[in-house]
Amino acid sequence: MANRLAQETSPYLLQHKDNPVDWYPWGEEALEKARVEDRPILLSVGYSACHWCHVMERESFEDEATAELMNKHFVNIKVDREERPDIDSIYMSAVQAMTRHGGWPMTVFMTPDGAPFYGGTYFPPVPSRGMPSFKQLLLSLADAYENRRDEVLESAGTVRNFLQEAAVVSIPKSEVSESLLTHAATSLVGQVDNRFGGFGGAPKFPQTMNLEVLLRHYKRTGDRATLSGVELSLRQMANGGIYDHLGGGFARYSVDAYWLVPHFEKMLYDNALLARLYLEAHQATGDAFYLRIAEETLDYVVRDMTDSEGGFYSAEDADSEGVEGKFYVWTPQEIEAILEPDEAKLATRFWDVTQGGNFEGKNILNVPRPPEAVAAEFEISSEELWRRIVGIRERLLAEREKRVRPGRDEKVLAAWNGLMLRAFALAARVTGREDYREVARKNASFLLEKLKVDGRLRRSYKDGRARFNGYLEDYACVADGLVELYEATFETRWLEEAVTLADAILELFWDVEKGGFYDTAADHEELVTRPRDVYDNASPSGNSVAVDVLLRLSVFLDREDYREKAAAVLENLSGGMAQVPGGFGRLLSALDFHLSTPYEIALVWPSNTPDVPDTTALINAVYSDYLPNKVVAGRAEGDETAAELIPLLAERPARDGKATAYVCVNYACQSPTTDPEELRGQLAG
């Protein structure tokens, strides 16, 4: 018989609906039961693509004896961390404080009023590696709550105080100047793995935002060594097993230091951030390799991760048929059964497929040899090699589609969709692909129609239900994506919607006393503390994105209140950026924008559409180089609505009946030009 989770929309919670555990979703019913019955709460937090979450479910939550202990002694609450980042953030901070490490599944034991007194991550079904079995832990903590209540309450009080103090702690400030950016870049360069790229050793995560800091440093200073570190990282990732060489897209991370063996789950936010970074690397270098990887990643999202209504799904699982990575790996015999002998020989050499394999007897496709070397070995040109590989890849992908696919988390999260919206909008400009622009438009319309309810943004959408109050990161990321979509279309409605969200950010999330943003809105349910996460981790923090989008909007709209709020956050977090630059990648990029004199580019054309050759030529000139610190506005000459909204566009005529570009800094403009080459020159220096 299904438990209460059967009524939820989260794929992760629904995975547990048939457990014998008497699970509750987070809510007043469960909290009231704990208070009335004076029982401790067992909080279990995870997400649908989490491998060890599945393991703990099989070993413990599906086990009748374990479930009996849980049901007898605890009120059991299951939370999807992706739906409720506030709860995840609060209790992960507690677990890290108690154990010095964190991760998922997260298991927290707390008093009926939500104060944690014990926590950890995965617990085994039998004693292992110094850890008690999960059943032993349940009995021990139940006994402590029943017979040593004073000790439990003292521990809970200590953790509660820690959480509340951590939410208001101030980091000593540093000087907000270009030297801070230089120090951060120098520190990050020193952490680059000069052999395999990326930062540090195993396990190795892409750390996309920190690579962007280095790319911006190269743009600002011309330091080629910094660019080399970025390029090494991007090439090693794209050639490694962390990249899906048949279907496109990146896995979450590599379990080794050289990007070969991934943790096979694919997350929307990783692919949004990586697609954008590869586009920017292409702009900075002109290298078509980076553009190909970006397009393959975005094409994967269109093909496998997009709802018919336009929303982007959250994740694909690491497991299929209960086996991690089974969907992705190959044997030589499987490839030989699909391809002609000469093609199979080429494919196995190109992707390093061997009889012994590189992963549990099978092969994760990767490209360890330079393609030029493989081409020389087969006595063909590099162009001919790639032509053949493209054809081979299509046949292998078609065969792979016949396999049992990994589970897919089909909930749509506002923040993650905003990140991907931004990537598609930029890609539309960089590639000129109209299909990417339409994907972005459709996604933006979906978010505003389905996830905006009574003027407020919601966090999650699935099965026709928009749920949970939007968090800071939801408002900020969607606004950020809408600003980029405006630049990709020059349709003012997207900018107007971004302004509405930005105003809501200031109204709902601003901390008047400390200067900064809370993660939850002022009218959010009361938790043990009001969370404020300022660090950029796997995805950017709401604070960082809010600062970035407020700065960009301040330039578009000449809004000094936006600029002042963003500057206050940068000042308050300056010490963090100086001390731990690796934790503030997106915020450092926002600081780079703030300290620069961003180009204000106005395009004006005489017709009603920007899609005429001379307008397109000017747009291509703007996006042909890496120019991160800019805003781009455009209008037809008679469009007074756009001119009223965006001061940069006011009183800017098209010259001689041609599309005209105005390059300005602080609203002081260079000579207007109709020549794409002259425009490139103005932007170059």
From TrEMBL:
<dbReference type="Pfam" id="PF03190">
    <property type="entry name" value="Thioredox_DsbH"/>
</dbReference>
<feature type="domain" description="Spermatogenesis-associated protein 20-like TRX">
    <location>
        <begin position="3"/>
        <end position="163"/>
    </location>
</feature>
<dbReference type="InterPro" id="IPR012341">
    <property type="entry name" value="6hp_glycosidase-like_sf"/>
</dbReference>
<dbReference type="GO" id="GO:0005975">
    <property type="term" value="P:carbohydrate metabolic process"/>
</dbReference>
<dbReference type="InterPro" id="IPR008928">
    <property type="entry name" value="6-hairpin_glycosidase_sf"/>
</dbReference>
<dbReference type="InterPro" id="IPR004879">
    <property type="entry name" value="Ssp411-like_TRX"/>
</dbReference>
<dbReference type="InterPro" id="IPR036249">
    <property type="entry name" value="Thioredoxin-like_sf"/>
</dbReference>
<protein>
    <submittedName>
        <fullName>Uncharacterized protein YyaL</fullName>
    </submittedName>
</protein>
<dbReference type="InterPro" id="IPR024705">
    <property type="entry name" value="Ssp411"/>
</dbReference>
